[in-house]
Amino acid sequence: MIKISNRLNARRIGPLTVFVLALLNAGVPPAAAEVRSPVLLINEDAATASVTVKKLRGNISVLTGSGGNIAVYVGPQGKFMVDSGIAVSRPRVEAALDATGSVPLKYVVNTHYHWDHTDGNEWIHQKGATVVAHENTLSRLTSGTRVIEWGFYFPPAPKEALPTETVKREKIMKFEDETVVLRNYGSGHTDTDLSVYFKNADVLHVGDIWWNGHYPFLDNGAGGSIDGLIRWVNECIKASGPDTLIIPGHGEVSDRKGLTEFRDMLVSVRGNVARLKRQGKTLAETIAAKPTARWDAKYGDFLISPAFFIQMVYMDV
Ligand SMILES: [Zn+2]
């Protein structure tokens, strides 16, 4: 869901989240938990975190530091953006956007409905850009969504933040000298996911389908699941070539080889957790059996702790 700067201690969030889940399992509603949602901690961090710009290829740059990774394609007449970051970091996102060129922003596509990818929609729309997203992003932003694992209710978004163009399965957009292909492969991280492929540059933004180097969040309450995520990752691997640059929702930009390693981790953890559950192990016993041990050094030291990831997978299998 989110990238946090070094100033916010990631270890602080994992146990908090697990604590919220433990309370929920015990039948304690989030309001009674008296635990500050990680969403609030992340917003506080984004309010001051710097936003950096890195040029990738074919006039496409990636902006980091405001929620999920933002991609910007700069054409001769206008810009095309993927994800809009967190609203509190607007001044730094605007400065970073300005650094990519002086042409106006024409489009922003949301890879999914989570606030760290859509919260900037309102100001970006007010600047004249069209907001494009999956049709379920429109309905979730319109109605509001409770994310139980985060102990947080996202209220309905303001009208100005809502997508005005929607996608169900596929949309091909000719934008200046690029062809941009938006795709949905069903539910994965959520039921609102889109991948965004810049054909000429051969750059693919996959949103939170990929957390490069981190265990991913599975938004079970909004259609996400481990099996859906694995199916999505396999589709994105198929849609990539050996030279395709792949932008994850969180973590470093990488390629098909990196995404394949992530897929192998997901399949391995899913298999281990399913086997333990079939043996009749409770969630606590499954966590104690350390089914992610082989991967923890690489993936477990961020927002989603090994125990939290195991819990989400356990619920699905
Ligand atoms: Zn997300």
Spell out the key features of this protein.
317 residues, alpha/beta, 12 helices, 14 strands, 22% strand, globular, disordered N terminus
Short structural description:
The chain has helices at 10-25, 30-33, 38-46, 90-99, 115-118, 121-126, 135-143, 226-238, 256-278, 283-288, 293-299, 306-316, and strands spanning 52-57, 60-64, 70-74, 79-82, 105-109, 130-134, 145-147, 152-154, 165-167, 170-175, 178-183, 195-198, 203-211, 245-250. The chain has 317 residues and is an alpha/beta fold. Strand 13 (203-211), helix 8 and strand 14 form a beta-alpha-beta unit.
Give your account of this protein's structure:
This protein has a seven-stranded mixed β-sheet. A five-stranded mixed β-sheet has the order 10-11-12-13-14, covered by helices on one side. Strand 13 (203-211), helix 8 and strand 14 form a beta-alpha-beta unit. Helix 8 runs antiparallel to helix 9 (256-278). Helices cover 37% and strands 22% of the residues. It has one domain (10-262): 4-Layer Sandwich (Metallo-beta-lactamase, Chain A). The chain is α/β, with parallel strands linked by helices and 317 residues long. It is globular.
Number of extended strands = 14
Which structural class do you get from the secondary structure elements?
alpha/beta
Determine the mean pLDDT. Answer: 89
What's the order of the H and E elements? Answer: HHHEEEEHEHHEHEEEEEEEHEHHHH
Distance between the termini: 22 Å
Shape: globular
- How many domains, in number, for the residues? 1
Question: Which class in CATH terms?
Answer: Alpha Beta
Task: Enumerate the spans where pLDDT stays under 50 for 5 or more consecutive residues.
Answer: 1-34
Distinct bound molecules: zinc ion
Q: Might you state the CATH topology name?
A: Metallo-beta-lactamase, Chain A
Strand content: 15-25%
